[in-house]
Design a protein that fits this description.
The chain has 108 residues and is α+β, with helices and mostly antiparallel strands. The protein has one domain. The protein contains three helices and three strands, in the order αβββαα. It has helices at residues 3-9, 40-45, 48-63, and strands spanning 12-15, 21-24, 36-39. Strand 1 and strand 2 (21-24) form a beta hairpin. The protein is elongated. The relative contact order is 0.15.
């Protein structure tokens, strides 16, 4: 099963700044600065204080105009197979130039 499919199959819930689970994700009245959403299992595994902290961070950064706000360390969503939330290790990037791979011009 693909990672995106697993992500879609999870029940996501909305977290209020008070740390309470408010309902389904996507039902926030404030469309310009919506509430934090987390998978229900992750939200239930966090303490009320941890849920509150990640929701407050989302609201604080959202009020400054940011649309994508990273979760707090405790609320990071990780998938079992690495998946979408996996961090790449030892990745040099697409534009990395390797010395032994440079093109050489030959004059004939």
């Amino acid at each position: 099963m693909g990672e995106l499919k697993k992500w879609r199959d999870q029940k996501w819930v909305r977290i209020g700044t008070d740390g309470k689970i408010k309902g389904e994700c996507g039902t926030s009245k404030d469309k310009k600065n919506p509430d934090r959403c987390l998978p229900a299992a992750k939200a239930k595994s966090l303490s009320k204080k941890q849920r509150s902290n990640t929701a407050k961070k989302k609201k604080r950064e959202g009020s400054k105009g940011k649309t994508v706000v990273k979760n707090t360390k405790a609320a990071e969503v990780k998938f079992s197979g690495g998946g979408l939330a996996r961090k790449r290790r030892n990745h040099k990037g697409c534009g990395a130039v390797m010395e032994n791979r440079r093109k050489k011009t030959l004059y004939v």
